[in-house]
Amino acid sequence: MIRSAAVIGTGLIGTSVGLALSRRGVRVHLLDNDESAVRTAAVLGAGVTTRPAEPVDVAVLAVPPGQIGVVLAEQQARRLARCYTDVGSVKAGPERDVLALAADPTSYLGGHPMAGKERSGPLAATATLFEGRSWVLTPRSDTNSETLNRVLELVTLCGGVPVIMESTAHDRAVALVSHTPHLVSALMAARLRHMPDAAARLAGQGLRDVTRIAGSDPRLWVDILEGNATAVADVLDDLAEDLAVAVGALRELAREAAEERAQGTTTMADLLVRGNQGRSRIPGKHGDAPADCVPVHVLIGDAPGELARLLAVVSELGVNVEDMAIEHSTGRPSGRVELQVSPTAAPVLAERLQERGWTVQPGEESDASAPEGLVNSW
């Protein structure tokens, strides 16, 4: 049973691990070269800033992927822990570094919790960050059983769901579902650097959704992309082919000849249908296919506690929310919360919320032809 742990690196993930473990009664020792970050994490309740007097049960290396091998070797030399894991989003490269540098690779097990935020640093951390989220573990044939059991217990204490993968298979998977989407988001956001003010005022939730993750720490992402460069480049090659097809279809749609426009329409429709099909493969919150849900839109004021008050009412009414999104109104001190619920629960929830004084907007189905930003304007 884990009674003590060390976390090296008190950014978003490391501090969240510390908060989750501390909440379960584990004594956590926080280590970081950034004194401000480690003090902040300690004040938040993620652990203590003293180095343990004796080896802890498990140490979590919450450092960039390129530093995992070196940091592991240093901490093993200092006998920090009985076993070690990491939270790096690349696995094959760090695994090679560990095998080359660490005194005892058998006491190390690679890990990657599939959770995060667009904001970084200890102030963005939460104890519930990993609850219900996949946590990849990449054991090797020489990983000792104590290390495997300890790290599995660590994942459970943090609320994660362990997923066993081989390191190179993990890197190919995250190139598709995480690393390339982040890079594409950054590239789209880069188009906005010199955006005219008039265009900025028209920005809607779709643009925010596409560019949200582009706000992450560039230094960390350079390290991540360097560690998984080939796999990401392979995905981008395929994407570049589709982009070229899309550009060609758009050129055809702009031509005068009806035959060319018809071909462009067919090609563009095929691309969009393929997008629908790919989107449907993303699991819902329970790990299966996305639930058949409908949105209920509720207006809230931009004041502390408003969202919590709304969610408390929804919980009191016994409605299960499958997903939620928050849209901010440009230039206004208000926002709109989209609650995804079952089709049978939606009308009841809307009625009950209105009875309690909330402003519920009508469904957008009848407004499908209106441009984004002009639908149900408020």
TrEMBL record:
Keyword Acetylation: no
UniProt region (Disordered), positions on chain: 356-378
Pfam families per the UniProt record, alphabetical: PDH_C, PDH_N
Segments forming domain Prephenate/arogenate dehydrogenase: 3-280
Gene3D superfamilies: 3.30.70.260, 6-phosphogluconate dehydrogenase C-terminal like domain (1.10.3660.10), NAD(P)-binding Rossmann-like Domain (3.40.50.720)
UniProt KW tRNA processing keyword: no
InterPro entries: 6-PGluconate_DH-like_C_sf, NAD(P)-bd_dom_sf, PDH_C, PDH_N, Preph/Arog_dehydrog, Prephen_DH
Keywords: Oxidoreductase
Family: Belongs to the prephenate/arogenate dehydrogenase family.
NCBIfam families per record: PRK06545.2-1, PRK06545.2-3, PRK06545.2-4
Full protein name: Prephenate dehydrogenase
